[in-house]
Specification:
- Chain A has about 800 residues and is an alpha+beta fold.
- Chain A folds into four domains: about 220 residues, no CATH class; about 350 residues, no CATH class; about 140 residues, no CATH class; about 40 residues.
- Chain A has 25 helices and 20 strands.
- In chain A, helix 1 runs antiparallel to helix 7, helix 5 packs antiparallel against helix 6 and helix 20 packs antiparallel against helix 21.
- Chain B is an alpha/beta fold and about 325 residues long.
- Chain B folds into two domains: about 220 residues, P-loop containing nucleotide triphosphate hydrolases (Rossmann fold, 3-Layer(aba) Sandwich), CATH 3.40.50; about 100 residues, Orthogonal Bundle (Helicase, Ruva Protein, domain 3), CATH 1.10.8.80.
- A five-stranded parallel β-sheet of chain B has the order 3-6-9-1-10. A two-stranded parallel ribbon of chain B has the order 2-11.
- In chain B, helix 10 crosses helix 12 and helix 13 packs antiparallel against helix 15.
- Classes of the chains: A alpha+beta (about 800), B alpha/beta (about 325).
- Chains A and B meet through helix 18, helix 19, helix 20 and helix 21 of A and helix 13 of B.
């Protein structure tokens, strides 16, 4: 295989490796095989064209035409002339498919179904990147820049995958690029003759191997460096402390094409809700202040999920409009007799919080002082950022209605409108029967929809035996709810999804809201909402009261007064919130702390609450372990650049250390010589193995412009080394340490200020440290490879590969 | 093993050698390396081949060296009609005593100057082989020992010159070193004009060392220590000539022997009782180059044997100071 063919093959492999990062984006992997086949054909055309040889631009053009033909045959052969040649219809079809694919990207959460349009996008993208990589690496013989398109391909997958890309996908991408570089290096070297493959293995060492280099060959060293860098790249991020994405990261996307039209795409803001809850630290995302009569139980809603597909809740695709000014339309279904007090609040989002939905309580009446491009989705009454607008660092004011229906009002609610009822009670057929059955069992004997809803809430929150646990997997399957009902362990997503689903089976219009619990009160009267306050709750519709919040999740948030049977009247918003048997104080804690009663929590705060409150002001709470980790990392980062200097000082002390230096006179002399040559190296005179000690000393004297005593001292050390090495009975040389210091002083005196500083702070001879580490690593590898441990290691490696292969293909979602 | 007495003779050696060197240099202007090399060969019991174009002082060097030493000197002018018996000697029938009497040839001297050695036929040149290597002459079945010290200093013109025969490989191999005089620098040539204006400077030359002193010095050189690593280095260099792609014929084991002996002499001249890789390096071209036969391709590329030896010197690894440190020493 000649160099260009090798480059072409490696380029194709690298492209496919990078494309692996997109595997988690769709739910099937067959597109990659398709892409691999087409890419192979495209690369083969390139190989043939270069062999002809065609001019480089012609080669690229030929490959591009090939790619177009291939895509036509695979994706639009019906519109093609003769099933192969692309005509105007084919381009029209491609245009249509690409539009659809863009819609699909917006419509589906990851992993998306592999629709034809998405397949075209993926396969076409891989072919395009493959073409660029092939052109750079093989046609124009410049493999290094080919990393850019590969990086772009990898970044798409890594950026869109859930919770960032898995390290597993990083490996093929990076390995592919390294392979490409290796192929190019190999080709470049082979232009100079045979590529030296390194010394023979010890097992093959025989008389013939005398004189052969024992160290690792450049090729093997290259492989090792590549593997090492790859390993560090994978391991380093894992061990460094970091702040996870969670809801802090922007999720979802407003997709208004401009004007007042456009739709809001279906996104899944729950994607990382669990991640947020499981973050080791609670970082403040919002801080708001409510008018005194506003109370402290306003949930901040981001989006509502109104589409239930049997497995999960999603937001429907809705039309968005400009934000109606000055007031938003009146909320659906709110009757005048239901008490609804307007409450004003001012909200400040943290700089690190970039969400493209505007968090605000439901139902908002008006939004003021809002900057940026925001649009209004009327059905869910949410504000959506347009053109990448997020909440980062945003300050705004919201006027909301604090709707306080009474239990009686809800109990007497008339039937909801037909259209709304039809839309919000849709339950797919694939929902397990146990969901509806449990709903019926729990609400048996309930007089009305309100009663049913309260019983459902109590079933989950109190008497159903459910436990709050954020470690449970969210689960996407159709039986996720059934499993939750059986295992009775989960977090807000499970509780809200299940209650909303069960409410729908009972004919109560229901949807799921996603947002934040009210957060923790601060000493200055404001409320701080942290990432751990992320929450999901069901909203049920009652004619007259509109969409009404319920709280089925135990130990989270507050249950609304109208759902508490014992609460005969609505509490006065101005008065302190009573704390009867239920917790009515907003809590950010995932579980109740029995040692900290709600009263104390509200008035003085528990230790946890205090620490959270105090740290909120500084941007988030941090555990001592994290602080220690950061401190250690900072220390290591500081010490790392100083490492060469420290090593050098220690090495010099050891080599010239008089009584403490190596015992043998010969070893002392050689140590002094090593120190002398390393000192010269530090000042820019690298050691040269092709010179004898005498010649080396002459060179140091000449290059280092040494004169007088320093030059003589260098000569004395060289003579001592000669005597040590070649004289029959070497006499111990005295004063060598002093001679070496003289030479150092001479070198220092003749060096420029910059060179002096470098010799001191970043001595070049510290490269020995790296070489020694490489040598030891190589020796250890050889020992491992040749010994029994090596065989065991290889067996273990083979076994691991066997295990990893099926896991690798199954890692999605 | 170096004893006090031998060390003393080593210092004698430098003193005596210095005297000889100054004496020769009073005649040969501006060629200290050539003079030094001649002395080295003398002390290493070798023979010296001086090769250069006519008129640069080859014969002058040979004569100056011979006259500086108080020993028997014979000069042979090699001509095409010279016979082997002219060199080795001939048995003549003595009528009176009725027996054959051996008349020694020109080779029977301590310093033999072979002038323009390549003008004689190869047959005559070959007459030198035995005497140079074994320091003896065999005529009519009888072997005659040659006096010590024995050194052949031969001059030759480059083979491209008219009327020359190239020396056979075996003959060349017997010379320890080949040296080229080279043209003198303008200053040296100017000084030479002054010195040679009225009389020959050779006339004034007086012996500065006795033959027995030279023998003693040669014995002292034999005691110079050559470390294993230096010997291995010499062997590596010679071995490299046998595998070099530009060489048709590499150097013989005798060349290794000569190289090490010359290195010892050079070390002794420098006042050391041990040889260094530097000694081997400095002598490699002089000792090896004249024994090597470059390939036709190398000759076409105008590559000389000296250049190839320098190339080999560049490629052959030197003894690693830290790879041969004494047992028990730690790697630092």
């Amino acid at each position: 295989m000649n160099g260009r063919v090798r480059s072409a093959v490696c380029g194709a492999l690298a492209t496919l490796g990078a494309a692996c990062a997109m595997l988690p984006l769709v739910d099937r992997t067959s597109w990659l095989l398709q892409a691999a086949l087409l890419l192979t054909i495209q690369s083969a055309v390139g190989v043939v064209a270069r062999r002809v040889p065609l001019a480089a631009p012609l080669t690229v053009a030929l490959q591009a035409v090939t790619a177009l033909l291939l895509l036509t045959v695979v994706f639009a052969h019906e519109q093609a002339v003769g099933g192969v040649l692309p005509g105007p219809d084919v381009f029209h079809a491609f245009d249509q498919l690409l539009r659809e694919s863009l819609d699909d990207i917006g419509r589906y959460a990851i992993p998306a179904p592999a629709t034809l349009a998405l397949r075209l996008l993926l396969v076409g993208g891989v072919l395009l990147v493959g073409l660029v990589v092939d052109a750079l690496a093989a046609t124009y013989r410049s493999a290094a820049p080919a990393g850019l398109p590969l990086l772009a391909l990898y970044s798409i997958g890594a950026g869109l995958a859930k919770g960032g890309s898995d390290w597993l996908w990083f490996l093929p991408a990076a390995a592919g690029y390294l392979l490409l570089l290796l192929a190019e290096g190999h080709e470049r070297l082979s232009g100079w003759g045979r590529v030296f493959g390194g010394g023979q293995r010890p097992a093959e060492d025989g008389p013939a191997a005398i004189g052969a280099g024992r160290g690792p060959g450049p090729l093997r060293t290259g492989h090792r460096i590549g593997a090492l860098v790859l390993g560090i790249a994978v391991v380093a991020p894992a061990v460094l402390p970091s702040i996870g994405g969670g809801l802090l990261q922007p999720r979802g996307r407003g997709d208004g094409p401009g004007g007042s039209g456009g739709t809001i795409s279906a996104v899944n803001p729950l994607v990382s809700l669990q991640n947020s809850l499981n973050q080791p630290e609670n970082r403040e995302v919002l801080r708001y202040r409510v008018a005194p009569q506003g109370g402290q139980d306003l949930y901040l809603r981001i989006v509502s999920l109104d589409q239930f597909d049997g497995a999960s809740w999603r937001a429907s695709e809705r039309r968005i409009t400009n934000v109606p000014m000055p007031m938003l339309p009146a909320p659906t279904g709110l009757a005048p007799e239901v008490r609804a007090d307007p409450v004003g609040m001012s909200v400040a989002a943290a700089d690190g919080y970039a969400q493209n939905y505007l968090p605000m309580p439901y139902p908002a009446q008006s939004v003021g002082k809002l900057t940026g491009q925001w649009r209004y989705e009327p059905e869910g009454r949410t504000l959506v950022g347009d053109h990448g607008q997020t909440t980062r660092g945003l300050r705004y004011e919201v006027s909301v209605l604090r709707v306080q229906p009474t239990a009686a009002q809800l109990a007497a609610a008339p039937a909801p409108p037909e259209a709304l009822l039809r839309e919000y009670t849709k339950v797919p057929d694939n929902v397990p029967a146990v969901v509806a059955r449990t709903a019926r069992e729990v609400t048996a004997g309930a007089a009305n929809a309100y009663d049913q809803a309260v019983r459902l809430q109590d079933f989950f929150a109190m008497n159903g035996g459910f436990r709050y646990d954020t470690e449970v997997r969210s689960g996407n399957g159709h039986d996720a709810i059934a499993r939750f009902l059986e295992e009775k362990r989960g977090f807000c997503v499970h509780f809200s999804f299940s209650m909303a689903a069960m409410a729908r089976t009972l004919g109560i219009p229901a949807r799921v809201a996603v947002g934040f619990t009210p957060g923790s009160p601060q000493t200055d009267g404001s409320m701080s909402v942290g990432s751990k306050d992320a929450h999901a709750w069901p909203e049920l519709y009652f004619e007259g009261a509109g969409w009404t919040r319920f709280e089925p999740t135990p130990s989270r948030g507050t249950q609304p007064g109208y759902t508490v049977a014992q609460a005969p009247t609505v509490p006065d918003p101005g008065a302190p919130v009573p704390a009867p048997s239920r917790r009515s104080v907003p809590s950010a804690a995932p579980s109740a702390d029995p040692a900290c009663p709600p009263e104390q929590r509200k008035l003085t705060g528990c230790s946890g609450a205090v620490s959270r409150a105090s740290s909120a002001g500084t941007g988030g709470s941090t555990s001592p372990l994290t602080v220690a980790g950061f401190a250690l990392a900072a220390l290591a980062a500081l010490a790392l650049p100083l490492l060469p200097m420290l090593w050098r000082i220690r090495a010099r002390a050891r080599r010239l250390g008089g009584a403490r230096s190596p015992g043998e006179p010969a070893a002392r002399t050689l140590a002094a010589w090593r120190e002398l040559t390393d000192s010269a190296w530090d000042y820019g005179i690298p050691p040269d193995d092709s010179r004898t000690p005498r010649m080396a000393a002459d060179r140091i004297v000449a290059t280092g412009r040494l004169q007088g005593p320093a030059a003589e001292a260098a000569g004395r050390v060289a003579t001592a080394v000669e005597r040590t090495l070649y004289a029959p009975h070497p006499r111990p040389a005295e004063g060598l340490a002093g001679d070496v210091e003289l030479v150092r002083a001479g070198l220092h005196a003749s060096a420029a200020p910059g060179a002096r500083l470098r010799a001191r702070l970043a001595p070049r001879s510290a490269a020995r440290l790296v070489r020694a580490a490489g040598r030891r690593w190589s020796e250890a590898c050889d020992a491992l490879r040749s010994g029994r441990a090596g065989r065991a290691w290889r067996r273990a490696g083979a076994a691991l590969r066997g295990i990893a292969a099926p896991r690798g293909t199954g890692r999605r979602g | 093993m170096t004893t006090y007495d031998e060390r003393a003779s080593l210092s004698d050696l430098t003193t005596t050698a210095d005297r000889v060197r100054r004496s020769v240099e009073s005649v040969i202007e501006g060629k200290p390396e050539v003079v030094r090399l001649s002395l080295t060969v003398l002390l290493a019991e070798g023979h010296l081949l001086i090769e250069d174009v006519p008129g640069v002082g080859k014969t002058m060097l040979a004569k100056a060296l011979a006259r500086s030493l108080d020993c028997s000197v014979r000069r042979i002018q090699f001509t095409p009609d010279l016979l082997p018996s002219d060199i080795t000697g001939v048995s003549v029938y003595d009528q009176q005593r009725r027996e054959f009497e051996f008349k020694p040839g020109a080779i029977f001297a301590q310093i033999v100057i072979g002038d323009e050695i390549n003008r004689a036929s190869p047959k005559t040149q070959s007459a030198l082989l035995e005497s140079m290597e074994e320091r003896q002459v065999t005529v009519d079945g009888r072997t005659y020992e040659l006096p010590g010290p024995f050194m052949v200093v031969a001059t030759q013109n480059p083979v491209e010159m008219e009327g020359t025969y190239p020396l056979p490989e075996a003959q060349r191999d017997r010379f320890m070193a080949r040296v080229s005089m080279g043209y003198p620098s303008p200053e040296a040539e100017l000084r030479m004009l002054d010195a040679h204006a009225g009389f020959s400077p050779l006339d004034d030359l007086q012996p500065v060392a006795h033959a027995h002193e030279i023998v003693k010095l040669i014995d002292a050189v034999r005691t110079v220590h050559v470390a294993d690593s230096v010997r291995r280095y010499a062997v590596d260099l010679v071995t490299a000539t046998r595998h070099h792609p530009e060489l048709r014929l590499g150097a013989s084991p005798r060349a290794t022997l000569h190289l090490v002996r010359a290195a010892k002499a050079a070390a002794a001249l420098a006042g050391r009782d041990f040889a260094l890789p530097d000694d081997v390096r400095s002598l490699a071209a002089a000792v090896l180059a004249h024994r090597l036969l470059p390939t036709a391709q190398a000759q076409l590329n105008r590559r000389t044997a000296e250049q190839i030896v320098l190339d080999i010197l560049q490629r052959t690894p030197l003894p690693d100071p830290f790879g041969q440190q004494p047992p028990g020493a730690r790697r630092l």
